[in-house]
């Protein structure tokens, strides 16, 4: 029993073998996958995948990389997508100061507007924060985001900041890099955050965990991250799989 809380089944990387991928997922320990949108097109695909596959749920939103492509009309179209069946969150949204593909003020503006959309719809938010820790938490607080459920995906901040997020009621999702050799910071986060506040994810097709590092990542590999968390916390793998799956179902409001 595993819930991959963040993957991009909609990625063009799977255009040639999506049916095969679906079969592999169905044969694996993974019972649920959250297919996350990055822009309008991928969010439409996420709606389609959620309708097509039992195990698939969707999130719709505009990634900070694509913030430049946003306008009022597109936001309204996202609102329409968010109301489709099995769409459970607005995401991924946030800030990425590592690549700065969109200007920072534009990223911040559409981050705020999409938080507003989630609050209006009463939906959870999936946050992407890369090298923008301070601005991310500040904007979340200013916009009242913690009135709804907040998920920090592929969390890469400090254990101290993770503690603050948990205090604010947020959930932390751990991705493949925790399995990497020099993952001291991520290990500290797992040690610090109670298991009740943790989810596991692949961010497939990116960031494959060991021993698949450098390959195309797939939702089945989320098992490696759950195994690593079990090792760090001194728990059974089965227990970590079940608790993180229950956490994700509760977070996304899935029966
Ligand atoms: Zn992301
Ligand atoms: Zn992602």
Radius of gyration: 17 Å
- The tally of structural domains comes to 1
CATH T-level topology? TIM Barrel
Low-confidence residue ranges = none
- Ligands present: zinc ion
| Biggest sheet descriptor | 8 strands, parallel
Query: How many strands in all?
Result: 8
Query: Which homologous superfamily in CATH is the superfamily?
Result: Metal-dependent hydrolases
What does this structure look like?
With 255 residues, the chain is of the alpha/beta class. The protein has a single domain (2-252), classed as Metal-dependent hydrolases (TIM Barrel). The chain is 42% helix and 17% strand. It is built from 9 helices and 8 strands. It has helices at 18-27, 40-52, 72-82, 104-121, 133-142, 159-167, 184-192, 222-233, 237-252; strands at 2-7, 30-36, 56-60, 87-96, 125-130, 150-152, 171-174, 198-200. Strands 1-2-3-4-5-6-7-8 form an 8-stranded parallel beta sheet, sandwiched between helices. Helix 2 packs parallel to helix 3. The chain is globular and about 45 Å long. The protein starts with a strand and ends with a helix. The mean pLDDT is 98. The chain binds zinc ion (ZN) (2 copies). One zinc ion (ZN) binds at residues 6, 8, 36, 92, 203.
What is the strand and helix layout of this fold?
Elements: E1 2-7, H1 18-27, E2 30-36, H2 40-52, E3 56-60, H3 72-82, E4 87-96, H4 104-121, E5 125-130, H5 133-142, E6 150-152, H6 159-167, E7 171-174, H7 184-192, E8 198-200, H8 222-233, H9 237-252
Parallel strand pairs: 1-2, 2-3, 3-4, 4-5, 5-6, 6-7, 7-8
Helix pairs in contact: 2-3, 6-7, 8-9
Bound molecules: zinc ion (2 copies).
């Amino acid at each position: 029993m595993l819930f991959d809380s963040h993957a991009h089944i909609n990625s063009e990387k799977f255009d040639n073998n999506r049916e095969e991928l679906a079969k592999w997922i169905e044969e694996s320990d993974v019972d649920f996958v959250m297919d996350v949108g990055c822009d309008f097109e991928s969010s439409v695909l996420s709606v389609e995948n959620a309708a097509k596959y039992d195990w698939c749920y969707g999130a719709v939103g505009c990634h900070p990389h694509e913030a430049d492509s946003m306008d009022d009309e597109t936001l309204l179209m996202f609102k329409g997508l968010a109301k489709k069946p099995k769409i459970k969150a607005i995401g991924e949204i946030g800030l990425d100061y590592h690549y700065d593909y969109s200007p920072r003020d534009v990223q911040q503006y559409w981050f705020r507007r999409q938080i507003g959309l989630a609050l209006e719809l009463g939906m959870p938010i999936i946050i992407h924060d890369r090298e923008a820790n301070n601005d991310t938490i500040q904007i979340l607080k200013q916009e009242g985001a913690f009135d709804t459920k907040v998920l920090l995906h592929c969390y890469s901040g400090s254990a101290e900041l993770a503690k603050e997020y948990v205090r604010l009621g947020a959930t932390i999702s751990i991705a493949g890099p925790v399995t990497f050799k020099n993952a001291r910071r991520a290990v500290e986060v797992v040690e610090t955050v109670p298991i009740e506040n943790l989810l596991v994810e692949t961010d497939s097709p990116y960031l494959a965990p060991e021993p698949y590092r450098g390959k195309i990542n797939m939702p089945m590999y989320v098992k490696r991250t759950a195994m690593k968390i079990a090792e760090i916390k001194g728990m059974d793998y089965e227990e970590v799989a079940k608790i993180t799956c229950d956490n994700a179902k509760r977070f996304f409001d899935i029966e």
